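TASK: fixed-backbone design
INPUT:
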């Protein structure tokens, strides 16, 4: 695309209620003012209400914006969607949650690729860490077609091939016998046949100098999980390698005081944090670069256990799609123009088909020096969600622009980084009170930890922006001056024009699953990777989605109805009550993610127009998948990092004595990536090999069944990830998605395809969940079990 220049006609949904009243125009006439683009049909939206006497001005304007947004979105996006708006079928939502969410989300994508459901999906919607996983998929699908220096085109299945860790084996040059567990001979043979890696290996064992399995794509991702230390390919374990770059910390401290000039004395809207740049660079290298020679991954030095690689030029060096940089390599990022070109080319080249990608950040409600003291009420309209695609960008609060974010000189990597900027003074996800948020904000501001990105607010003039940048504090647009300048405007309009910049921060400050974007687009079947930190199983992100949906107009109201807004999950008893009391429950309550009771491990649920009371097994029966009455109902498939620890202990391990009569754990069975489960309940609950090996090798006796896996801390997993953590979470997500194959293939045949299978699973999960009610948890980690050896704990239930 040629260089972009701003055009006022691109802006949609920015007329204020006050302006509309002044011109004596109704919300419907505001809708009519949006020009139609193309011949594509609009997605279903609510009918025009027959009476608006009970609606406030703000509700009328909000309704008008929703309709106008839908019209703009349909006109711009529909030519590039795999299926039409009337038959939009599969949407994929990858949640936030840092490196852990990236690994698990990668597994969800790998599983969908394995069952031929990834490339043909209609949409992928990402938040924060889920964007890393999507970035890998899109860069490796797009770069080989558009960039000359390439290893060649790989299928989606090939991108996710990887070796399986072989218990008890280690590579030369490393200490032997570090594993205090082993596998049966039969299991070792199966792993060897599938493609095995020793403990410190990244690629499968060689045959004639070449890997037996082309797993270099995943091997390179695995070795770069310390994204705060870019350009480091490591074979170290998690405990042996803490992933913070000393250069990053030093540079951030050295630039802290100079940064105050542009962030406190003045407000220039320019990036000043080296840590933020390091973070984005780490994402770009780990998930966007490709090792040039796959055999190079065999040569990572055993001591010190990592390689700090270099990119000599864009066309030479250790990796593709990177270049020399200051201190470490610099990624050559994916651009929105490359993404759009891929959508266009797929019309005539189906092999290049990819889902339409929606990147979800949050447009900070309080973007200012005082952003830390955010005392605004929680957002209820999702107007804070800032969507970025190859054809548009914007939010309900600021309006939508029919141009890609490259209008603001952002690349796709910039957008992914902004949507994952969890360290920013304007965040509101951490800290339950203004005082706590303020304290965190002060520390981040003084430490120059500003990971968000500022773009120009397209609702204000360039003249005002210029004046703003030359005025020192307190004369620039602090909240006090905002209220003076815009006195008399509705609150929503004050927020829209209150700042000359729009601050983009971590999407987890809004709706952390990415489901809202898919529901707006009429997706009928939504696979959700719900991988944010949730050690108590309280499903806080699903509860937040439920809360936001509940504020949509009722189907029977004068607004006209047609919104799917009622969320149900039959396998989580009393879920509505649980969500309503989530913030006040003491002690915390949740559903045990270490005692997952379901033979079908993917939770099914729905979002529907009809309110069902009481909630139960039939809450998701007889869904209306048509568009005759507004938005279609949607089926949800929630893929959660959750396992059944008692089953693992009883059915997959036993203890044996070695030659020294020491008690050791032996793994007797586990699932390999190409294997599918049978109908036997025991097999359905069996854990895959990489996840089982990681779980056992990282056992902490004092935690009993309540181990850190599969719910590591988001922050610690991001700062101290490793190739083994990545593989464990990826394979868990992949394993669970494999179970969706029959259901998704039926769903792809028609809007209501697979209804009977879906309802049967929902009823089965309701039955299996009895006794699984939200309650004070057996895995409350303040009540640790007595410390015992790994072997004695794991074998406690073994025959």
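OUTPUT:
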């Amino acid at each position: 695309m040629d260089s972009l220049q701003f055009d006022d006609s691109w802006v949609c949904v920015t007329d204020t209620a006050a302006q509309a009243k002044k011109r004596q125009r109704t919300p419907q006439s505001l809708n009519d003012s949006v020009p139609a683009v193309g011949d594509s049909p609009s997605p279903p939206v609510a009918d025009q209400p027959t009476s608006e006497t009970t609606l406030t001005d703000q509700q009328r304007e909000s309704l008008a914006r929703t309709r106008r947004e839908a019209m703009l979105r349909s006109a711009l996006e529909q030519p590039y969607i795999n299926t039409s708006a009337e038959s939009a079928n599969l949407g994929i939502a990858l949640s936030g949650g840092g490196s852990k969410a990236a690994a698990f989300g990668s597994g969800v994508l790998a599983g969908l690729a394995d069952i031929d459901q990834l490339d043909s999906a209609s949409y992928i919607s990402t938040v924060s860490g889920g964007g890393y996983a999507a970035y890998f998929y899109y860069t490796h699908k797009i770069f080989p077609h558009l960039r000359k220096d390439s290893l060649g085109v790989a299928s989606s299945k090939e991108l996710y091939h990887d070796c399986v860790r072989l218990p008890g084996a280690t590579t030369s040059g490393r200490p032997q016998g570090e594993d205090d567990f082993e596998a049966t001979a039969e299991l070792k043979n199966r792993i060897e046949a599938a493609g095995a890696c020793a403990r410190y290996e990244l690629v499968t064992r060689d045959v004639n100098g070449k890997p037996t399995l082309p797993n270099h794509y995943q091997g390179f991702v695995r070795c770069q999980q310390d994204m705060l230390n870019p350009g480091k390919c490591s074979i170290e374990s998690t405990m042996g390698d803490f992933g913070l770059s000393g250069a990053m910390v030093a540079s951030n401290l050295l630039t802290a005081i100079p940064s105050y000039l542009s962030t406190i004395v003045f407000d220039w809207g320019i990036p000043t944090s080296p840590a933020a740049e390091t973070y984005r660079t780490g994402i770009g290298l780990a998930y966007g670069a490709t090792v040039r020679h796959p055999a190079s991954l065999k040569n990572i030095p055993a001591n010190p256990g990592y390689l700090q690689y270099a990119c000599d030029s864009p066309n030479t060096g250790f990796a593709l799609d990177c270049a020399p940089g200051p201190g470490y390599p610099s990624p050559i990022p994916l651009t929105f123009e490359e993404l759009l070109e891929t959508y266009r080319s797929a019309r005539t080249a189906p092999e290049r088909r990819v889902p339409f990608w929606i990147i979800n950040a949050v447009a900070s409600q309080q973007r200012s020096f005082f952003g830390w003291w955010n005392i605004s009420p929680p957002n209820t309209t999702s107007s804070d969600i800032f969507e970025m695609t190859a054809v548009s960008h914007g939010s309900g609060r600021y309006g939508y622009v029919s141009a890609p974010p490259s209008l603001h000189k952002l690349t796709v990597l910039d957008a992914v980084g902004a949507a994952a900027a969890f360290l920013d003074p304007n965040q509101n996800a951490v800290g339950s009170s203004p005082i706590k948020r303020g304290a965190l904000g002060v520390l981040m501001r003084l430490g120059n930890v500003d990971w968000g990105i500022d773009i120009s607010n397209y609702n204000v003039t360039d003249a005002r922006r210029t004046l703003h940048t030359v005025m020192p504090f307190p004369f620039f647009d602090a909240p006090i001056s905002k209220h003076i300048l815009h006195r008399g405007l509705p609150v929503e309009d004050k927020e829209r024009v209150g700042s000359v910049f729009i601050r983009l921060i971590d999407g987890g400050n809004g709706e952390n699953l990415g489901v809202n974007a898919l529901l707006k687009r009429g997706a009928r079947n939504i696979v959700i990777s719900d991988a944010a930190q949730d050690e108590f199983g309280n499903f806080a992100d699903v509860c937040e989605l439920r809360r936001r949906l509940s504020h949509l107009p009722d189907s029977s109201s004068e607004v006209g109805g047609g919104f799917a807004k009622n969320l149900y999950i039959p396998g989580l008893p009393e879920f509505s009550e649980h969500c309503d009391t989530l913030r006040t429950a003491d002690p915390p309550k949740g559903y045990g993610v270490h005692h997952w009771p379901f033979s079908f491990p993917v939770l099914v649920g729905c979002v529907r127009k009809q309110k069902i009371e009481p909630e139960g097994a039939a809450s998701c029966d007889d869904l209306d998948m048509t568009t005759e009455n507004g938005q279609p109902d949607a089926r949800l498939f929630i893929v959660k990092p959750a396992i059944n620890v008692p089953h693992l202990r009883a059915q997959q391990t036993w203890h044996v004595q070695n030659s020294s009569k020491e008690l050791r754990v032996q793994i007797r069975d586990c699932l390999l990536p190409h294997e599918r489960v049978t109908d036997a309940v025991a097999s359905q609950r069996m854990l895959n090999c990489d996840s089982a090996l990681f779980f056992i090798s990282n056992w902490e006796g004092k935690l009993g069944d309540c181990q850190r896996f599969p719910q590591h801390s988001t922050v610690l997993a991001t700062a101290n990830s490793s190739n083994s953590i990545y593989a464990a979470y990826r394979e868990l997500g992949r394993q669970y998605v494999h179970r969706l194959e029959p259901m998704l293939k039926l769903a792809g045949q028609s809007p209501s395809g697979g209804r009977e299978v879906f309802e049967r699973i929902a009823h089965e999960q309701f039955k299996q969940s009895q006794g699984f009610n939200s309650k004070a948890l057996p895995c409350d980690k303040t009540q640790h079990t007595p410390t015992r050896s790994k072997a004695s704990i794991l074998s406690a239930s073994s025959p």
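COMMENT: The radius of gyration is 26 Å.
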